[in-house]
Structures are given as structure tokens and as C-alpha cells.
Design a protein that fits this description.
The complex is a heterodimer of chains A (about 350) and B (about 290). With about 350 residues, chain A is an all-alpha fold. Chain A has helices spanning about 25-50, 60-65, 75-110, 120-135, 140-160, 170-195, 195-205, 215-245, 245-250, 255-280, 285-295, 300-325, 335-355. By secondary structure, chain B is α/β, with parallel strands linked by helices. Chain B has two domains: about 25-105 and about 185-290, P-loop containing nucleotide triphosphate hydrolases (Rossmann fold); about 110-180, no CATH class. The two termini of chain B are about 30 Å apart. Chains A and B meet through helix 1, helix 8, helix 9 and helix 13 of A and helix 3, strand 6, helix 4, helix 5 and helix 6 of B.
């Protein structure tokens, strides 16, 4: 009988509303509730992002600026030309980063994976450096295509190298090759920056990750890529649920493992490439957001993807707004604030997970 | 105590009706001149094997003899470098993965349970081949999961997290996942590893019951020769990538066979409980025991 008894120290059965055999729909109920709550929070944060900044603008004025702007009204100008673009870029970029992180953790079965692991961020950074230093490109709109190209090349190189050998792409090989690529790209970047002061100056502002001063055109350009990436990621949830059980189990369940991985990585490249191109290499959103989603809905990737799509923009916008408030009238870039907010959140999740897994 | 896996006997007929395949259609799985290689190293050299439908086949052999590799090929996980595995006469590699998965279930040696997953959710993932990007959870899925939980006596644990369970319970959860998949042939790679003797017998009894009540073909790799001989209808002994002998355990397992397959001197006597052949190793130090 001993093996049937719980070992001492094992926590009691998980509470939660799941009844026997009804777990899929119980997860569904929690998911739907979470989606509604997050949509409400996202609406509030969006409003805050339009209202607060170097100077505060009342909700009524924001409303007027959006629907019946008055020419020459300074507040309306601020809302329309500055705050609307950065808010939209935050929403879209955050969704892309959050989902890309969830997909990356799923495909590598690695809880500390983030989109940067594929070398996408360093590839984009390297390409931007080349653009600034070698070709004299000097605008965010100009960086965009270089960043995207760099991200795509990095992903192809890393995935291609990781797929050599008879067993094809494995999570471990993907992580190792990605790390090697990142290290190489980073050292090249450092060499260029050390020898070229002017490039350093321009690159700094791109590299830190910010939503400010990015023209709306940037968003319009990447929107189709984000849309394609999000569409793929809805199909990816099912694939990741199978892959999570191990390659052999997934194959036994009829999942084409190689094709599934390719689908997921393609989605990551589209999403992460778009986000990097728009806002620079913002770290941490892709790492923290999937863990938050998991706390709410458990290990079902179909739901993790959906919640990450809402949690990502929420985190990024909160960081952006906070960054404007702490250093008024100046501001702290969102990429920096995210790390400050995200680290304690991640710590809390790790502590909680330890207690559960015993 | 070994009564934890009492199997409700009510379910056998349902099991085959849901999948739409009549119990009378046996699905034939066979290997024809199968060679298997990891990278450049060939592990299995030209195996021909007919899996008897509706029976329990057990593959045994020394470590590294290629038995697990062969099982993975039978499950379509590994592509033969030469020869082919056939499902009802068709090349397994040419069938769609999803169609294969509707007939063949695989329980590999070390499956991964996602952190925090509940028993019911993990069993539900066995429905993967029956779902699509647009076909979501259905009443048939719920029914299949519920039946799998009942057959493995896991209903009371359905809402528990898998990581809280004991090794024996966990192995039953994986078995239930495969049952929810509703396959006609179950392939299991050393399903009793890490289980104590009582739970080994429990699990094998459960598999034998499932085989008997629903006619599901069982193919498994086992290390324990005596349990293999007791539970197998058809015993396959492998040695260095080839089938050494196969047939009913009583015909196959003798001292000569054990010597050839494992390099072990042993006496083979009738099992006092079942009469199946029982291997008693001679070893080098039997003098001390006597």
C-alpha cells in the first residue's frame, strides 16, 4: 500500500474548481474569466497611457482629442501625435513579445527561455549597428527593415545549425546554438561600438528599448507580420501541448514534431522580429508573461498563448506609463522599467512554484 | 496491497464502438526486413516480425539488443534505414501521422508531465489525434477520458496534480492517456521500470485485463524475464539486433535461449503459480546460498 500513500510533506490535493473528468472545461472557465479581467485592465492602462506623461491631460480632453480634435490645441496635439502612437506600439509590441515568449518556452521546454534565445534580438541589433555604422542610416523607420532582416537571418542561421545531425532540431541544440550565436553577435557589436563613438550614440537609444518617438508608420509596416505571427500562434498552442509531453509521446499522439517546431519558430520570428524592429530589444516581457499566464490557467498552451497576448501589452504599457511618471518631466525607457517591475514578479512566481512542486 | 487497479468490467464493448472500428477487425502490425540505425550505427539488422493481433507480445533481450529501438520503429517514431513496418499491409511511414495515432498508441520510457498538470488534463491530451486546429473538445472526448479514468481506477485522482502522485499512480495516468487515445494496438517501452514488484504486477494485470476485455493488441518491452514469460502470449527474444527466437513462452524460453540471449547460465523451471517458464539464474556464487 505504501506507494499509494502520499509521501509525508506532499501538499493536499490542489483546490481549484476542477471536478473529476471535467478539467478541460474548468480550465476554460478560468481562462474566459481571466480574459475578461485582463481586457478591462488593458482598457484602463490604455487610458492612463493617453492621459499621463510629462503633463497630465484630463480624460475628457483625451476623448475630444481622439474624436473631435481642435487644430492648434497643444493637448490634442500631444495625445494624437505622441501618446496614441506609443500606446498602439506598446499594445502591439507587448502582445507580440508576450506570445513569442510563450511559444519559445514551449518549443524549447525551457522555463527560462525567452525570444532572445533564438538569437533574434542580437541578430536585429547587429543589423542595426551595420545600418548605422556602415550605411549611415539614421532614423527609426530606417532601422526597421534592418532589424527585421537581422532577426530573420539570425533565426534561420540558428535553426539551420541546430537541425544538423540525424535527430534534427532538439530543444537543447536550439538553446546551445542560440547562445553561441548571441555571444558572437554581441562581441561583434561591442567591437564596432568601441571603435565608433558616433554609432554608439545613436545605437544606445535604439538598443535600450523604448516606445517613445517611434512614428506610427513603423507600426503600420510591421502590423501584417504581427497578424500573421498571432494567427500561427493560435495553431501553435495545440502543437505545444503535444510537444510538452516529450518528442516520443508527441509522435505517438500523431504530431509531426519537426513540422510542429518549424511552425512555432516561424511564429516566434514574425512576432519577435516585429517587436524588436518597432521598439528595440525589450527583454523580460517574453520571459515573465508566460509564467504569469501559467499561474492563472495552468499548463494548457492554447490558453497560455491567449493570456500572454493580453498580459504582454499590459506589462509593457504599465512599464511605459510608470517610466513617464517616475522621472517627470523626463522619462525612463520602458525597456528598463519592465525589468524593474518584472524581476520581483518572476521571483514571486518562482517562490510559489517551489511550494507547489515540493 | 495490490487491489488498487481493480478494473470495472463493464466497458469492453464501448471501447471499440466509439472509435468506429469493429472489434472483429484486427489491425495487423508487422516488420519486414527492418534495419534501424542511430546516425551511422546500425542497431537492428533485418528484423521480420508479425505481431499477433489481439494478443500480448513481449519483447525481451539484453541491454542494447535493439528491443526498444524496434518498438520505436513499430510506433513510427523511428524511420527504418532499410525495410519497412506495415500496418494492415501499408507502409507505416507513408500513412499520415494522425491516422497512425488513431490506431497505434505509444508509451515511451520517459514521458514528460508538464508542471502543474492535473490527471484529467494529462489524460485528455491523449485525445490529440482525434482533434484538429478547428475541432475542439467534444462529448466523445469527455467520454473517452472518463472511460480511461475508470479503466485505470483514477477517477478519484482526476483533479490531482500529476507530480503529487506516486510512481505507480503516475504510470497508470500515462496508461490512461494512451487509453483515451483509444488505439487498437498499444506499444509500451518498459512500462514497469521504477515500479516495485507489487506495482509491476498491478500494471501488467491491468494491461492483461484490457487486452482480454477489449481485444486491444499489446506490445511491450520488458526487462523482467519471469514477468515477461507470465504475461506474454507471444514472446520475442532479441539478441544483437536480431530476433533470436519467438513463440509461446513455454516453447521459447529454455536454458539454452537464456544462455544465448543474455550469456547467463540458468535453470528454467515451471512457475509454481502459472506454470509458465521461470528463469532461475545460476550465477557464479550459488554455492554460498546453498
Amino acid at each position: 500500500m505504501s506507494a499509494v500513500l502520499e509521501s509525508p510533506g506532499t501538499p493536499p490535493p490542489a483546490p481549484g474548481p476542477e471536478g473529476p473528468g471535467a478539467a478541460p472545461s474548468a480550465t476554460g472557465r478560468r481562462g474566459v474569466l481571466a480574459v475578461l479581467v485582463l481586457l478591462a485592465l488593458l482598457a484602463l492602462t490604455t487610458l492612463a497611457s493617453l492621459m499621463w506623461g510629462a503633463r497630465d491631460i484630463a480624460p475628457g480632453e483625451v476623448w475630444a482629442a481622439l474624436w473631435s480634435p481642435v487644430d492648434g490645441d497643444n493637448d490634442h496635439l500631444v495625445v494624437r501625435d505622441l501618446r496614441v502612437p506609443r500606446t498602439l506600439i506598446g499594445l502591439v509590441g507587448g502582445a507580440a513579445l508576450g506570445v513569442a515568449g510563450a511559444l519559445m518556452q514551449g518549443v524549447t521546454r525551457n522555463p527560462i527561455a525567452d525570444p532572445g534565445l533564438l538569437g533574434i534580438n542580437s541578430g536585429a541589433s547587429l543589423a542595426v549597428i551595420v545600418a548605422i555604422s556602415g550605411l549611415g542610416v539614421g532614423s527609426v523607420g530606417g532601422y526597421l527593415w534592418f532589424a527585421f532582416l537581422g532577426a530573420a537571418v539570425a533565426a534561420v542561421v540558428v535553426y539551420g545549425a541546430a537541425s544538423m545531425g540525424w535527430e534534427g532540431v532538439t530543444p537543447v541544440k536550439l538553446a546551445l546554438v542560440g547562445a553561441a550565436f548571441t555571444a558572437t553577435a554581441t562581441s561583434i557589436i561591442t567591437v564596432v561600438l568601441l571603435t565608433d563613438q558616433r554609432t554608439l550614440g545613436e545605437y544606445r537609444f535604439w538598443q535600450v528599448g523604448s516606445l517613445a518617438n517611434r512614428p506610427l508608420d513603423v507600426l503600420v509596416t510591421v502590423l501584417p507580420f504581427v497578424a500573421a505571427g498571432l494567427a500561427l500562434s493560435f495553431a501553435a498552442g495545440r502543437v505545444l501541448n503535444a510537444l510538452a509531453l516529450g518528442d516520443d509521446v508527441a509522435r505517438g499522439l500523431g504530431q509531426d514534431v519537426a513540422r510542429g517546431r518549424l511552425l512555432v519558430v516561424a511564429a516566434v520570428v514574425l512576432l519577435c522580429g516585429s517587436a524588436v524592429s518597432m521598439a528595440g530589444p525589450i527583454a523580460f516581457v517574453g520571459l515573465v508573461v508566460p509564467h504569469l499566464a501559467r499561474v492563472v490557467v495552468g499548463p494548457d498552451y492554447r490558453w497560455i498563448v491567449v493570456l500572454s497576448m493580453l498580459l504582454g501589452p499590459l506589462l509593457l504599457l504599465v512599464a511605459d506609463v510608470a517610466g513617464r511618471l517616475v522621472a517627470r518631466p523626463g522619462e525612463v525607457e520602458a525597456g528598463l522599467v519592465v525589468a524593474v517591475i518584472g524581476a520581483p514578479v518572476l521571483l514571486a512566481i518562482v517562490r510559489r512554484a517551489k511550494g507547489v512542486a515540493s | 496491497m495490490t487491489t488498487t487497479t481493480a478494473v470495472p468490467v463493464a466497458a469492453p464493448q464501448q471501447a471499440t464502438e466509439v472509435s468506429g472500428i469493429a472489434a472483429s477487425d484486427p489491425v495487423r502490425l508487422s516488420a519486414r526486413g527492418v534495419h534501424l540505425a542511430y546516425d551511422q550505427r546500425t542497431v537492428v539488422h533485418g528484423v521480420d516480425l508479425e505481431i499477433p493481433p489481439g494478443r500480448v507480445t513481449v519483447i525481451v533481450g539484453a541491454n542494447g539488443c535493439g528491443k526498444s529501438t524496434l518498438l520505436r520503429a513499430l510506433a513510427r517514431v523511428l524511420r527504418p534505414s532499410r525495410g519497412r513496418v506495415e500496418l494492415d499491409g501499408e507502409d507505416l511511414q507513408r500513412l499520415r501521422p494522425k491516422d497512425v495515432a488513431a490506431v497505434l498508441g505509444l508509451l515511451p520510457q520517459q514521458p514528460l508531465a508538464p508542471e502543474g498538470i492535473t490527471v484529467a488534463d494529462l489524460v485528455g491530451r491523449g485525445r490529440h489525434p482525434h482533434q484538429g486546429a478547428f475541432r475542439r473538445w467534444s462529448a466523445a472526448d469527455t467520454e473517452a477520458v472518463s472511460r480511461a479514468l475508470a479503466l485505470t481506477d483514477l477517477h478519484d485522482l482526476a483533479a490531482r496534480r500529476v507530480e503529487e502522485l506516486s510512481g505507480g499512480q503516475r504510470q497508470r495516468v500515462w496508461l490512461a492517456m494512451m487509453l483515451a487515445q483509444d488505439p487498437r494496438i498499444m506499444l509500451l517501452d518498459e512500462p514497469t521500470t521504477y515500479l516495485d514488484i507489487a506495482h509491476q504486477v498491478d500494471l501488467l494485470d491491468l494491461l492483461a485485463d484490457l487486452n482480454e476485455t477489449s481485444g486491444t493488441t499489446v506490445v511491450m518491452v520488458l526487462h523482467e524475464l519471469n514477468l515477461a514469460a507470465r504475461y506474454a502470449d507471444h514472446l520475442v527474444v532479441m539478441h544483437e539486433g536480431r530476433v533470436l527466437r519467438e513463440g509461446a513462452p513455454a516453447d521459447v524460453l529454455d536454458a539454452e535461449c537464456v544462455q544465448a540471449a543474455f550469456g547467463l547460465r540458468a535453470s528454467v523451471v515451471p512457475d509454481p503459480v502459472t506454470g509458465a517458464p521461470m528463469v532461475v539464474p545460476a550465477g557464479r556464487r550459488r554455492g554460498r546460498v546453498a
